Amino acid sequence: MKPSRSFAAVLVVAFLAWAVPPLAPVHAQQKTIKLGMLLAMTGPGAFYGQVMSRGAQGAVDGINRAGGIGGYKLELVIEDHKSGDADAGVSGARKMLDVDKVPVILTSYSAPTLAIQPLAVEKKVLLLNGGGVGSALIGKAGLYNTRMLSSQTAPFVIQWAAERLKAKRVATLFWNDAAGQGVNGAIRETCAKAGCQVVAQEPHDIGAKSYTAQLARIKAARPDVVALGSFGDDVGYIVNQARAYGVTVPIVGIDWTPNAEKIGGKAMAGYVIAVDRFDPEGGDAKTKAFVEAYRAAHKDAPEFYAANYYEHVQFILQPLIKRVVDRKGDPSKPGEILAEMERALKEGFAFQSVYGGDMRLLGDGTAVKPLGVFEVRDGKLTLVGRIVGGKVQD
């Protein structure tokens, strides 16, 4: 259903509040709900922490500017997992759970998320993940993933390679952690079904700067395609070094960032990924309002990581908190928002999405969102295929 003109106008006002200072302080009598965030604020993945926190903060600012939610204002509490360090993630989570008493944590990366999930269950705290992609994130109590996971995206980039590039021999290069291993597993499974062969499997440390040994073995295996299960800056370094080392076959993956593009430079041309299809030029009123506000605040267009964490606050937590308040509960208390999420899913509640339309959250903790295949052209991602009914279509 299309939003009414009045609804669209309210959205624009709320979103644009992000980009301007408040005219008056929030009323002192309002209570505060602290929303935890566990992000990569330092290390090779700091780009992710920056844009994810910007997305969530934009939603928080807009909601508070509009008066909060049922007498509550929102406040972000951000802790750093140092780009995937599980121990750092656990330390940050313990602080948020035991000191800040957060009822929800917006988390990222697979390893830290898996490490803190038992702690969140113990404290009855809701976990929302919009960045990690490991297949092990599926079916975990209290954890809901709003990014499409590797088991959902990797099959389509391999389908693209097998059908469009006629690839028969695939080599993989991937992060040596839960996320990368999940991608590699999904690639192996898809290759078996698509009739291609995995001829080399090369793990690497997160944040590595040299891939000479792995690329030498990959080149010797004579693949038709190299498939990456790597993320962030690492993608740029890998593609750049692969081309310099004489690996000339197509390279595909499931992640791209502006930073990786700068690092990879001209070598990134032709790199193909399958990923969540967030369109900053989309016509939906929610998308337009978010993009306008983000551009005004940060002088740049948002990508899907910022969109996912904006969506967590604006379109998942805001209605859940309202539901708790409406039934006279206290949403600042751990357990209340998690219980409300479980009730909402049992009722078939439809969460709106900044991607446009609604987002379906499933009982196993996965989501159903638009997917696409993109190719790097002139330094930017260009949509080259939409995924419809489990198939890549032009």
Explain this structure.
The radius of gyration is 21 Å and the shape is globular. With 394 residues, it is of the alpha/beta class. The two termini are 26 Å apart. The longest helix is centred in the last third of the chain and has 23 residues, at 304-326. It has 12 helices and 16 strands. It has an 8-stranded mixed sheet with strand order 7-6-8-9-10-14-15-16, sandwiched between helices. It has 2 domains: 5-148 and 279-369, Rossmann fold; 150-277 and 372-393, Response regulator (Rossmann fold), CATH 3.40.50. Helix 1 (5-16) runs parallel beside helix 10 (285-298), helix 5 packs across helix 6 and helix 11 packs across helix 12 (336-347).
What key phrases describe this protein's structure?
disordered N terminus, 2 domains, globular, alpha/beta, 12 helices, 394 residues, 16 strands, single chain, Rossmann fold
- Contiguous uncertain segments of 5+ residues: 1-14, 20-27
Annotation, overall tally of beta strands: 16
Specify the CATH homologous superfamily of the largest domain.
Response regulator
Q: How many discrete domains?
A: 2
- Tell me, what is the CATH class of the largest domain? Alpha Beta
- How large is the count of helical segments? 12
Termini distance?
26 Å
CATH topology label of the largest domain: Rossmann fold
Order of helices and strands: HEHEHEHEEHEHEHEHEHEHHHEEEEEE
Biggest sheet descriptor: 8 strands, mixed
Q: What is the average per-residue confidence, as pLDDT, rounded to a whole number?
A: 92
Which secondary-structure class do the elements indicate?
alpha/beta
Gyration radius, rounded: 21 Å
How big a fraction of the residues is strand?
15-25%
